[in-house]
Every structure is written in structure tokens, then in C-alpha cells.
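> run fold SsrA-binding protein
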Amino acid sequence: MRAVSKKKKTPENVIALNRKARFEFHIEETMEAGLALEGWEVKSLRAGRVNLQEAYVLIRRGEAWLIGCTITPLPTASTHIKPDPTRTRRLLLHKKEIARLTGAADREGYTVVPLDLHWKRGKAKLSIGLAKGKKKHDKRADQKEQDWQRQKQRLMKHKV
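> ok
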């Protein structure tokens, strides 16, 4: 029997990243959700015409929704439909996952944010995270740590 290796998220699998989410929030838990998309949206995702910067996840009436995600239609999109780039898209999660997110998001200061959009076995998946907002001093400390790591890499590069 041959062991099947699991593929990691590689740069070619990732469609879009929400880099601002990791800067603005402490991500405590992540999970993966499917997306209910239309045909023109999938074509636009393949072309990489998506923006997650202003997007957020809202849980309403036992369903999870992605709001504020912009998927720009291709100019060659069908003429008989009017594509809406910022429409609300349904996230496909199990009821237990939605219940866990609802309970966690109701706590003070917690929210659910989209982290990245990627392909998995030919299907578009959204990584979402249960997050708590960072204070200004936390952001400064993270920035300072990143600068130090970058500077350390430069020093090591020049020593060799």
C-alpha cells in the first residue's frame, strides 16, 4: 500500500489572500468552507479577479454568508445575465460548524473573518478564522517583530 501524501496550500493553489486579516486580528481557530458560486464567478476566480480585503463573514438564521467579497466579472461574461460583483455568497458548512462559530462569535470581541481563497480538488474553498481584534500596541509589536526578522535575514545574508 502506498501512503497518499496530503497536498499543502501552495502559491499556485491560493487564489486570494486577506493579508489585512492577520494584521488586524489574532486568529484563534481556522476552518475551511465551500462557496456557493455562479458560473461566471468561477471563471473570474480562475483568472484571479477577486478581492477579500473588505470581506467579512456573517452568521444569520443558521447560515453563514460571505459579505463584501468582490469578484470582478470577466469582460467576456455572458450578456444575458447581469453579474453583481459584490453579491452576498453563501458559505457551505455543517450545522455543527455553524453552531460552534455562532457560539464563539457571540462572545465579546470575537468575529469571523475570511483568510484566503484557494482551490482544493478543483473546488473553490474559503479559509475562515475565528478572530479577536488586536489593539494598537499589539499591531506595533507585530510590526516591530517583522522588521527585526527582516533585518536579521539581511544580516545573515551579508555575513555569508
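The chain has one domain: 14-134.
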